[in-house]
């Protein structure tokens, strides 16, 4: 792999003065609005708008999770269905994360 692995570059002409674009890059509320795909929401956790500063945001897609519980063999059969996975989340990654979460759920309720 070359030195640019994992890097993207995009240019776009914006019909607004440079000062207005610059301000939108430095305003946490503005960043929360524009730095998110239309199907997602965002939350700003930290924002240091200095040259060389950093920011941290979470992007969240709206997903529907349905859990079905059925009595089974002295316990419970839990089935979870995740619909409308957010962009960038593969079904395999979601399945792994859900499996890990369900393992933690089982540990929590089985310890009682």
Structural features, described:
It is a single chain. The protein folds into two domains: 44 residues, no CATH class; 47 residues, no CATH class. The strands form two sheets. Strands 1-2 form a two-stranded antiparallel ribbon. A two-stranded antiparallel sheet has the order 3-4. The chain is built from three helices and four strands, in the order ααββββα. With 112 residues, the chain is α+β, with helices and mostly antiparallel strands. The longest helix has 20 residues. The protein starts with 17 loop residues before the first helix and ends with a helix. It is elongated, with a radius of gyration of 21 Å.
Keywords:
alpha+beta, 4 strands, 112 residues, two-stranded antiparallel ribbon
Helix tally equals 3
Helix coverage percent of residues?
A: 25-40%
**Basic shape:** elongated
Strand order of the biggest β-sheet: 1-2
State the end-to-end CA separation. 50 Å
- Judged by helices, strands and strand pairing, the structural class is alpha+beta
Number of strands: 4
Number of domains: 2
Mean pLDDT: 85
What Rg, in angstroms, do the CA atoms define? 21 Å
């Amino acid at each position: 792999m070359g030195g640019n692995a994992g890097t993207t570059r995009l240019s776009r002409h914006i019909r607004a003065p440079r000062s207005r674009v610059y301000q939108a890059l430095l305003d946490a509320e503005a960043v929360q609005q524009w730095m998110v795909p239309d199907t997602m929401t965002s939350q700003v956790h930290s924002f240091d708008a200095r040259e060389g500063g950093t920011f941290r945001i979470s992007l969240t897609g709206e997903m529907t999770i349905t859990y079905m519980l059925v009595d089974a063999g002295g316990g419970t059969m839990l089935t979870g269905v995740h619909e409308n996975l957010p962009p960038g989340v593969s079904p395999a990654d979601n399945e792994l994360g859900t499996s890990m979460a369900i393992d933690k759920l089982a540990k929590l309720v089985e310890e009682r």
